[in-house]
Structures are given as C-alpha cells and as structure tokens.
Amino acid sequence: MKKNLLITLVLALIVVTVTGCSTKNEIPSNGTSEEAKFYNASKIAVTYVKSPLNVPSIIEKNKGFFQQHFDEYNLPVEYSNLTTGPEQTQALASGDLQFLNAVGATSVILAASNGSDIKIISMYSRSPKAFMLFANDSQIKTAADLKGKKVAGPKGTILHELLIAYLKTAGLTEKDIEFISLGIPDSQAALVSGEVDAALLAGPAAYNIKKAGNMVLTTGEGLVDATIVVATSQKFYDENKVLVDTYLKAQKFTLDYMRKNYDEIVQITAEETELSIDAVKEMYTMYDFIMEITDKDIEGMKKTEQFLFDNKMIDNHVDITDILIK
Questions:
Q1: CATH fold of the domain at 129-219
Q2: Of 136, 154, 201, 314, which is most buried by a Cβ count within 10 Å?
Q3: Helix 105-113 to helix 85-94 angle, to the nearest 10 degrees?
Q4: What's the mean per-residue pLDDT of the chain?
C-alpha cells in the first residue's frame, strides 16, 4: 500500500511539474481539430481606427463581436487608438498589438521593406474615391499649380501616395512642394486656418471640408487603389493559428451583420462619427468592405510597392506574395 501511495505521489508531482512548465493554453474542448489545439496568448490587442469611415470597426466594437468570439478562450479584447501606419506597425513588431484591423497596404509594405515581421491575413476595404486632396486657393486648379506650395497630410499613408501620384501627372515630385507631415485632423485645421495651401483628407474631415466649399483637386480614383488590410505577424500566426482563424470568423460575422442590418449600422456610424445619417449614407457608397484577397488586390499592391520603390520611399523590394499569410 505504501509503495502504491508513493507511485501515485510521484506521478502527481510529474503532472504538476509538466503543467507548470507549459507556456501554452489548451483550447476548451469544442471539437477543435488537434492541429490547432494550443495557443500562446493572454489577450487580444487590436487597433481601433474609425477614420476615414471604417464602418466594420465601428460596428464590431459597438456590438462587441470580437469579444464574443474570443470569450470561448477566456481572452480579453483590448483596443488601441494608434491610427498612423508607422505607430501601428511598430506596436505589432514589439508585440503590444496582435492585430492591425485597418492598416494601409502602403504602411505594411514600408514595414516589410524595413525587415518587420508583418503579414496580411485579409482585406479590410478598398475606397479610392474616399481619399481626397483639397486646396484653399481658387488659383490652385491642377497638379502643376501645387509647385512651391505647402501641402499637409499624413506621411507614409495612402494619402501620401495619392499626393505623389497626382504630382507625377504634372511631371512634379515631392521635392517641388513643401510637404508637411500632419495627421488628418491637424491637416484639416491647417487648411482652414490658411497655414497650408492644400491638404490630404479622408472620411468625415473630407466630407465636412467639401461641404464647406473647398475645392477637391483630386480623389484617389485612377491614382491609387486605396487598399486597407488586416495584418498580424508570422510569429503570432505560427503560435496561434486558431486565434487568427477566430479573428477572421469574427470579421466575417461583422460584415454579414452589416449586410443584414443596414439602417442600424448607418445609425451607429453616424453617432460614432458625429456625421448626419445622409452623410454616412453618401460616404458609405465609396467603400468596398469585402475581406477576401483577390488577384486584383495583389496586382494593386504590387503597383504600390513599385511606386514606393521608384520614389525612394523604400530601399528594398518587397514580394507581395511573401507578406500574405500562408
């Protein structure tokens, strides 16, 4: 009897020791396949970017869809208000964030070129018409008229790419203007105050400036694809495939909900952005919220990559297929 008791205690000690040394969590038994049985995370940290008019993010957070999906694993969902591409990609690289929910493909390519571990897992939106360049001087009517002028906008973004592409139509480069790197709200304020001659805007800021009578020099149509994506790191994916799959399920669930509840999602978006119902409806038509990555999306990102390289915004080429999650 003593011998059996000793064996039992030894086995119990082994189980405790092995369990204590484990760094991964086992998913609750729910029929999940053996190949995706474990994950290595204590939270889900995701960006919350509502501008230009990121309806899926607004609806998801309002309804708590991500949290509902990750409750299965007892993981809290935390939101980050980092909105610029460089801030987002740096936070992903540091491990502070697990998912970039709405990041410009431009920012992803810039980060990848600099050696960051970043992978695209789905599309977020395409909206070239929603990105605009405004002028506050009636004498500025074409790209050529911007020579020597002050232009404000967020550096290293789709809007920045739009500016360079527009200048190129007149044989100009960024060196021919005075570019001032400012976020969208500050760019709008600088345009209104007359501190700059033109500004790159999108979302509510663009809508309001346009309604106030400022001239739209150009939109992104025909110049940029305005591709917004969802990204994580290869490391996080390799360690947490089941969590990435769950994230994608939550994204799809959100988009399905949007399609079935148009009036509600317009109302929620209007309240969150402080836009009128009519404004949201007008702007909403500019966006394509389909999460599947198409051949056209890949070709568009290849063009953006070449554009960034040609304009010396990246030093190293990036193979777009290499930054898509495998």
A1: D-Maltodextrin-Binding Protein; domain 2 (3.40.190)
A2: 201
A3: 50
A4: 89
On whether the CB atoms of residues 121 and 325 are closer than 8 A, the answer is yes
Among 33-37, 54-58, 71-75, 269-273, the least confident range:
33-37
The whole-angstrom separation of Cα 108 and Cα 114 is 10
Joined together, the tokens standing for residue 208 give 């309001």
Spatial contact of 149 and 177, defined as CB atoms under 8 Å apart: yes
Confirm if 99 and 117 have CB atoms less than 8 A apart: no
pLDDT confidence tier of residue 27, bands split at 50, 70 and 90 = low
Q: Strand (E) positions, the chain?
A: 25-26, 38-39, 44-47, 77-80, 100-104, 119-126, 131-135, 150-153, 178-181, 198-202, 215-219, 227-232
Determine if the pTM surpasses 0.85.
no
CATH 1.20.1050.10 fits 43-127+226-323, yes or no: no
Instruction: Read off the pLDDT band of 4 (50, 70, 90).
Output: low
